[in-house]
Amino acid sequence: MKRTPLYATHQQLGGKLIEFGGWEMPVQYTSITDEHLAVRKAAGLFDISHMGEALIRGPGAEAFLNHTLTNDLSKLAAGQGQYTLMCNERGGVVDDLYAYRLAAQEYLLIINASRIQADLGWLTQQLAAFDQRNEVKLDNASDATGAIAVQGPRVAEFINSCFPGPSAGGTTVARASDLKKNQIAAFRRADATIWVSRTGYTGEDGFEVIAPAPMIEAIWSQVLATGKPYGLKPAGLGARDTLRTEVCYPLYGHELDENTTPIEAGLGFFVALDKGDFVGRTVLAAQKAGGTNRKLVAFKMTGKSAPPRPGYPIWGTGPATSKLGQVVSGTQSPTLGIGIGLGYVPPEFTKPNTTLDIEIRGRRAPAVIVPKPFYRKAD
Amino acid sequence: MANVPLDLKYTKSHEWVRVNGDVATVGITDHAQHELTDVVFVELPDVGRRIKAGEACAVVESVKTASDIYSPLSGEIAEVNQAVVDDPALVNSEPYEDGWFFRIKLSNLAELSALLGPEQYKMQISGA
Questions:
Q1: Nearest to residue A226, comparing CAs of A152, A162, A177, A163?
Q2: Is residue A238 within 8 angstroms of chain B, CB to CB?
Q3: Chain B contact for A303, CB < 8 A?
Q4: Residues of A in contact with B40 (CB under 8 A)
Q5: Domains recognised in chain A with CATH numbers
Q6: pTM for the full model?
Q7: CATH number of residue B83's parent domain
Q8: Is B43 among the domain residues?
Q9: For A182-202, what is each residue's pLDDT tens digit?
Q10: Cβ–Cβ < 8 Å for A23, A2
């Protein structure tokens, strides 16, 4: 298993270490519920150094990425990012990711830890066949780069003392907390450049910090010490999963895989059909127009039951009940106190208030489809 | 170090047993509840069910996972604790008292000698 620069820190903090996507990561420090609620009420600190970073530079970078990713990259100003997907020719998802325009001809992709090899392989392959390949430079910066996520309603109160402004690249801001959602800026720190974005995977306000790997340990320690008086707690992958499930964010390998399209997953908003051709466009255009065989729904358990889990069968509740699909993500929601889940069902069963049965250890427990997301932060 | 009461017997799979004549009360240990952290759901066997030692007969769920609970002994389920079904957090706060799971009317008292004593269980969890 691989280890991030924060491995020793996780051990010192009493983190319970598990395997995730080939990495030895903390699933929790105190308890998942505790850490989850800290993020919703104050602030949580996550090690996301296991994630991958790819740098794409050159005059052909924008065209190459717009050909390979589904969202419209040409909309990005320097210092802006967007959620996007990378699809194969069948419209199946190779990965979901964030793409940032750091400068006019410089892009940073933040990709899933479990997909680093697959993504770089795919990008390399696509680049080899790209007309303007001599005008594009692709680099895998994953091993040299670390990252942390600081998430919660109180983060904006202490982030500036950790990363004093003004910015030195990307979006021009006097202070980090001036960044708007999806904006990214460079800040100087000890003769190096680090990037701070106003993004996250929890549904709360927050920032993500991307820095050279040797700097990450000191950055973590400073953020933790600075944020503690505001309620900041270290948070592990367990809370990361319950937080994203509550806001219905997909996790690759669950809602998304190479045999699932963004349209099936309800992510058509991030597929810009009218930007020109891109890998997978034909299939995705047909699906947007003509529909799909299955669609992702959010549901909650309605009786007292065990929580839904990935792999549990989903049944209809009408007189002719048949198996409709299966759960891809599920948990007991720490914020809502009920079982919540995401799963795929045929399109005729997707209306909110449709009743379902979730099969848990051979017995069926009642559930109901609800609109996404389960939780929305107060504004 | 987790609490390991001296008046109980234990299994390798982290159940504890309190014997009273030919009835045994079963729960999960302090070590087990600490590993699970927040218990959100408990599924108990039906009263009257016949079980064998080592048979999975209950489930305890944390936020992250579902874990099987194994019967330490053979017999018939005599009673189950509705309190942990209504309030799963009892398993974390009182694993040896109000957080008990079920009671067995024992069919084979000889099986008691196969259970671990508190010192043996302590050694197992400190090595873990």
A1: A162
A2: yes
A3: no
A4: 307, 332
A5: 7-49+144-180+187-246 (3.30.1360.120), 52-140 (3.30.70.1400), 293-370 (2.40.30.110)
A6: 0.95
A7: 2.40.50.100
A8: yes
A9: 999 999 999 999 999 999 999
A10: yes
